[in-house]
Amino acid sequence: MRPIYRNLAGLIAFLGVWEAAVRLGLINDQYVPPASVVLTRTVELLGQEDFLRDVIASMLAWAIAMLAAIGIAVPAGLLLGSLPGLRTATTAIVEFLRPIPSVALIPLAILVIGGGPESKIALAIYASVWPILYNTIYAFTEIDPLLIDTARSCGAKRGRVLASVALPHAAPFVFTGIRMSAAVALILVVSTEFIAGASTGIGRFILDATSGGGRMDLVLAGTIVAGLLGYLVNDGLERLGGRLFRWHAATTTEAV
Question: Which of 77, 144, 185, 209 could form an SS bridge with 128, CB 3.0 to 4.6 Å?
């Protein structure tokens, strides 16, 4: 079977089990509506202008956060990766900041930045920087020293070695970090919208559905849309990486 058929078969089986469990009374339909009801609400939402505006607001914040994270993490990773002394000096700071859950910073972000789009973008940037940064640094540690020595023996200066040897080698790893950060950024955007009570966005829609009479069908429908967006983003980036770096195995492996 082709992968797409296996994926569809697994999805249909999951939806069937979900539907049967609710219809047989194994799950209270007040908390988890049948899959058929949730899918119907999902289709209805995709035809509503207000909900589409929420989707656009979330994806716009996601895109801004990803561009900013790439602009920060890639140069920083190249700098730290090419200067071992600087990397060693900043290790303690990086290792202190990296494990901090971004969701835990939402109250601080609201106090410092406010509850507008800036807070969700800032938190998404913070969470997305680390996978890109670490993959970029890791790429430098995996460069074969023979390649660098060969370039230098041919008279290449440090900048030339960086551009002609280090960057092509690091590109697939950087792209893998970007693909991982794409999902992280979307999670942070929607989570911040939900917890901070943003004015627009998928998270705000889910929050309103939760508080407005407990419409779990709308809550799950909004969640499905968010998950579908995440799947499409990851699949699109994975396909793009496969085309750009099919010569390198880094795009088919998980980041360190």
Answer: 185
Classify domain 33-252 at the CATH topology level.
Answer: MetI-like fold (1.10.3720)
**Going by C-beta distance under 8 Å and a sequence separation of 6 or more, which residues neighbour residue 154?**
none
- pLDDT for 232 equals 92
Residue carrying the six token digits 């494990």: 99
Closest CA to 38 of 174, 241, 244, 224: 224
Tell me the C-alpha distance between 254 and 240, whole Å.
16
Task: Please state the domain extents for the chain.
Answer: 1-32, 33-252
Determine the Cα angle at 132 with ends 72 and 84, to 5°.
80
**Rounded-to-integer distance, Cα 149 and Cα 101, Å:** 41
3-state secondary structure of 132: helix
29-50, pLDDT tens digit by residue?
Answer: 888 899 999 999 999 999 999 9
DSSP 68-126: HHHHHHHHHHHHHHH-HHHHHHHHHHHHHHTTS-GGGGHHHHHHHT-SSHHHHHHHHHH
Tens digits of residue pLDDT in 191-218: 998 888 778 899 999 988 888 666 888 9
Residue 74: both structure tokens together: 């890639």
Q: Tell which residue, 20, 125, 22, 12, has the closest CA to residue 64.
A: 125
